[in-house]
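I hope you will forgive my troubling you with a question about protein structure. The full record is reproduced below for your convenience:

——
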Amino acid sequence: MRILVVGSGGREHALARKLSQSPDVTAILAAPGNGGTAACGENVAVADTDVPGLVALAKDRGVDLVVAGPEAPLVAGLRDALETAGVPCFGPDAYAAGLEGSKAFAKDVMAAAGVPTAAYETFTDIRAARAYVEKIGAPCVVKADGLAAGKGVTVAQTKDEALAALDEAMVQGAFGSAGATVVVEEALVGEEASFLAFCDGTRAVPMTACQDHKAAFDGDTGPNTGGMGAYCPAPILPPDRYPATMELVINPILAEMAKRGHPFTGILYAGLMMTADGPKVLEYNVRFGDPECQPLLARLDSDLPAIFMACREGRLTPELVRWSPQSALCVVMAAPGYPGRYPKGMVISGIEAAEADPAVTVYQAGTRRDGNTVVTSGGRVLGVTALGADLAAAQAAAYRAVAKINFDGAFYRRDIGNKGLAREKRA
C-alpha cells in the first residue's frame, strides 16, 4: 500500500510512523508534513486544505489510501472528492464531519440521538443571544459555530464576559463566518476525559480513554492551547465503563448518522465532562486528537492500515484492535510565547538522546528539517511520548526524555498525568 497522510502536526507524525511499521505499506507520503514525517517517507508541499491538490496528488502518485489527520479537510469534503475520484479515504464524508465542523449541527444531532449534553440554544441574531445570556446568567459557555482553530470557545464566569464573547464573534467578526452563528450553553462542572472509537458506519470499537491538558501552564492555569500533553489509559474512565459509555455517546450517533443516510466511518471522538450526573458530551471531533493520538498509537499493538481499511469497508471487529497493557504519556514541548506569538527557526538538540530509551518516541509537530538539523516552525514543537508499566513509570520516562531535549525558550507543563496518579491513590 501507498498511503498519503494529510496534515503537519504531531498527530500526523504519529500516524505516519505507525502506518509505516505495517508490512503491507511500501510508501508514506505526507502533505504538507513536517520534520518528523520526512523521516517516515516523503513530504509533498500541498496544503492540507487544498482538496483539489490532494486529490490530484493521490491520483498522480498511485495512492491506495488517504488518511486525514486534521478536521478541516474532512469538513471541506476531502473524503467525498477522493472517493468520487476512486481513491479510498479514511474519514467521514463532509455531512458527517459536520459533527465537528458545526457546533449547532452537533448539538442538534445529539438531541435527536438522545446523547447527554449541556442545555443550549443556537443564535444568529446578536440581540436574541444577548437576551438569552441575561436570562440564564453565568457561568455559561459561548461557542462559535464553525471551525475557529480551537479559539472559538469561551467559558464565561460572568455575564459581562459572555456578552463580550458574543460581541467578539457576532459583531467584531473575530472568527469570520465561523462566528456568524453561536451556541450558548450551560457550563458543565467536572473533570474532562477523551473517549475515541474506530467506526465502520454501523459498528464501533472503543480506544482506551485519554485525558488531555488544554491549559498552557501547571495546575490548569494560563490560556487554552491545542493541548500540552495527554496520557492513556485514564483512570477517570476505567475499562469496565467503556461498554456503557459506548451505548451513551458513540452508538447513538452512529445510528442517527446512518438514519440520515450518512453512515459515520472513521474516528469519532467524544470530549466528555465527567459530571456528578454521569458523562456529558462537550463536543465531538471526527479525527484523532492531538496530542491524544500520540499516546494512543504508542499503545496500539495492531496493524493500523488493517483497522482503517476495515472501517472503510464496513467490516470492523473488536479482534482487529489490540492494546498494550502498558500506559503511555505525552508531554508537549512548546515555543516561548505559545499560544500567542512565538519565534521560529530555533535549533532543536537532544532528540536522538531522548529516543535512546526504547520506551520513548519523540513525535515532531512544529518542526522542519534544515539540512541535517531540525528547527522549530510552530508553537507546539514536540510531543515527547513514553511507555511504562503503569502511569507513574510512563510519566517518569517521559520527563527524563524531556530533560535531554533543548531549544531556546522551550517550555512544558510539569504535571501531565498528575490527575490520574492522584485518582489512583484515592482508589
Notes: The chain has three domains: 2-93, 125-180, 191-426. The mean pLDDT is 96.
